[in-house]
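Query structure, 508 tokens:
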């Protein structure tokens, strides 16, 4: 078919290790002082010798296992020769002929499977900072600065088959891969810090179905930008061809403001990197038991966690997904869920209801759902108010036991949803438990119709027009009257009881 998009990804991720790939300089992406974490080895001084970082090798293998790759039993490093000021040695140690991992696959959230061509291990380059030529700048301009803190940091490159056809799938793949890297501890994969870098290759098929000329898009600083650049580029290439033009092989960048790709440099002559085996490093050999040992350290992966959460707690796909992406919040939910049974029993005992009887499964199920709903919808505002990051809940004052207790109170209608929100806010503020707050603030919901009778009478008396309208069949007026009664009861009236009372009185 004509103009079918063909897209493949290359994703670099900086590995999370204590030291660099071939020396003991610290690997610290947060180091702000330039050229602080450097030594003669990563600066490429003559006479120095590299030593392989075992932790980095293990992390690449772990990544390969997470993506169902086959792991090479024998592999080696090679030199990729090119000159650039951010590359002190004049070559990058990389892998070309025999990557550590090959032939994997990753299923993305919409069920599509993307084939992984390879994952190999290499070292990162330094960072250049180009000082413009602003004559007013205090340091002048027209020169570049180089920071070698990143030079020699272990870098893992994943290459996919050209299996994508649109930006959305590129987004889903990149997000899933990023999450896996975090789960297995291979990389922090933070794109803003440059710890993960996505490059997109894209072409359209020719009339005979063969692949067209591909364009590479680099310098994408977010997954959203990667997805948007793909969709933009599909349209650009199609229009170009339809107007008699030709796609040229080139590297393009992404302009975030204009939401457009732009030409950076043409790819006319292929680079000759003169790869050859790195003579200063031994080849690597793994026994299958070595790989098995690494496999035992593979934790639960995001896809497995989503399934477990859905099965165990009966929550929605979206909630299970949220508790997987926001891992700490998911752990919090697990803790809450483990407390619900006990909290429900405590409630029975306190109210003299059923004593120590087991909680019925359907009640527990409702409590699981209720808790998930509250956490997903109500917590973001609490986090924002208290300046708490979803990735670090350590400062959050609502402990899971207290939250479970609150959910039981809501379930038993001891508290209206408005009341519950007020209690949550107070819990986040003070760290007190729900019962204390309800008592102090007098928030418990009134469901006793005797107590609400006079409230309803007053509302009916004060609102003759809506009362008439309701009697004539206008349902919206009932809603209005319930609202007025809620206000009259200072938010404590049980809305269902109020509705019943109003209906009874007006239908008489
Ligand atoms: P190169 O030699 O130009 O680096 P590779 O064959 O190594 O090309 O592939 C690099 C990336 O480009 C891979 O992700 C691959 O899936 C993708 N790719 C290969 N051919 C095409 C194509 N015709 N259109 C889009 N992407 C492609
Ligand atoms: Mg390539």
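Result returned for the query:
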């Amino acid at each position: 078919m004509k103009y079918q998009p063909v897209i493949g990804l290359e994703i670099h991720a900086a590995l999370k290790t204590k030291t660099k790939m071939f020396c003991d300089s610290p690997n610290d992406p947060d180091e702000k002082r330039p050229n602080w974490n450097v030594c003669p080895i990563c600066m490429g001084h003559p006479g120095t010798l590299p030593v392989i970082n075992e932790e980095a090798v293990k992390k690449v293998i772990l990544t390969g296992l997470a993506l169902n790759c086959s792991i090479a039993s024998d592999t080696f490093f090679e030199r990729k020769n090119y000159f650039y000021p951010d590359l002190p040695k004049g070559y990058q140690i990389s892998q070309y002929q025999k990557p550590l991992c090959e032939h994997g696959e990753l299923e993305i959230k919409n069920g599509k499977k993307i084939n992984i061509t390879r994952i190999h291990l290499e070292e990162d380059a330094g960072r250049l900072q180009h000082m413009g030529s602003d004559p007013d700048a205090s340091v002048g301009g027209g020169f570049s600065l180089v920071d070698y803190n990143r030079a020699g940091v272990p870098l893992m490159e994943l290459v996919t088959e050209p299996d994508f056809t649109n930006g959305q799938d590129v987004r889903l793949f990149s997000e899933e891969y990023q999450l896996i890297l975090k789960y297995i501890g291979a990389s922090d994969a933070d794109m803003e810090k440059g710890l993960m870098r996505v490059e997109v290759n894209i072409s359209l098929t020719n009339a005979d179905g063969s692949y067209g000329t591909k364009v590479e898009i680099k310098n994408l600083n977010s997954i959203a930008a990667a997805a948007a650049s793909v969709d933009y580029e599909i349209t650009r290439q199609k229009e170009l061809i339809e107007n008699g033009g030709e796609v040229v092989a080139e590297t393009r960048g992404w302009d975030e403001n204009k939401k457009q790709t732009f030409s950076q440099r043409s790819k006319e002559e292929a680079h000759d990197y003169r790869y050859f085996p790195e003579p200063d490093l031994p080849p690597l050999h793994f026994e299958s038991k070595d790989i098995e040992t690494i496999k035992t350290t593979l934790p639960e992966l995001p896809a497995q966690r989503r399934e477990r959460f859905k099965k165990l707690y009966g929550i929605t796909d979206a909630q299970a997904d949220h508790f997987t992406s926001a891992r700490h919040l998911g752990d919090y939910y697990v803790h809450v869920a483990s407390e619900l049974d006990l909290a429900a029993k405590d409630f029975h005992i306190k109210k003299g209801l059923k004593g120590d009887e087991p909680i019925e499964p359907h009640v527990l199920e409702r409590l699981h759902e209720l808790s998930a709903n509250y956490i997903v919808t109500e917590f973001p505002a609490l986090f924002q108010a208290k300046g708490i990051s979803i990735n670090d809940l350590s400062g959050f004052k609502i402990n899971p036991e207290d939250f479970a207790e609150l959910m039981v109170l809501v379930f038993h209608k001891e508290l209206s949803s408005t009341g519950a929100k007020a209690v949550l806010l107070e819990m986040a503020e003070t760290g007190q438990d729900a019962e204390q707050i309800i008592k102090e603030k007098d928030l418990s919901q009134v469901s006793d119709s005797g107590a609400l009778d006079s409230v309803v009478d007053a509302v009916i008396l004060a609102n003759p027009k809506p009362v008439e309208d309701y009697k004539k069949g206008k349902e919206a007026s009932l809603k209005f009257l319930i609202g007025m009664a809620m206000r009259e009861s200072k938010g404590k009236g049980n809305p269902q009881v109020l509705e019943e009372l109003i209906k009874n009185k007006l239908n008489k």
